[in-house]
User: What shape does this take?
Amino acid sequence: MAHDNDLIFCPYLATQSIVVRFDSGGPQTPAGKLGYLVFDEQFTRDQVDAFCNSLQLFGIGLSWGGPMSLVMPYDMDAIRSGRLRYPGHLVRFSIGLEGVEDLQEDLAHSLRIAFG
Assistant: This one.
């Protein structure tokens, strides 16, 4: 069940040391939960893109509440400025119906590739 995936996956994501902020308070969809994380500003946009591109089980795209896990990086400088801008690099997740252990392994592998 997707909700069970959220309960396991979201805390796992929040424990990653390179994540500055994680929020799983997004809306619940029929397939899963929407959330986002912010990578520290010390990392480059290229590293964040490499992280997203190396994910195998997450498609890159916007979520419409489907059954597949998705990820979408955002260019915060293009979206917000001044005090409304999050420091760091924003990446939005939608957790789908895939096995949570498989998603965690995919995430860990992509974190190693992109950030060492």
Summary: The chain has one domain: 2-115. Residues 100-115 form the longest helix (16 residues). Residues 2-115 form a domain with the Aspartate Aminotransferase, domain 1 fold (CATH 3.90.1150.10). The chain has a mean pLDDT of 77.
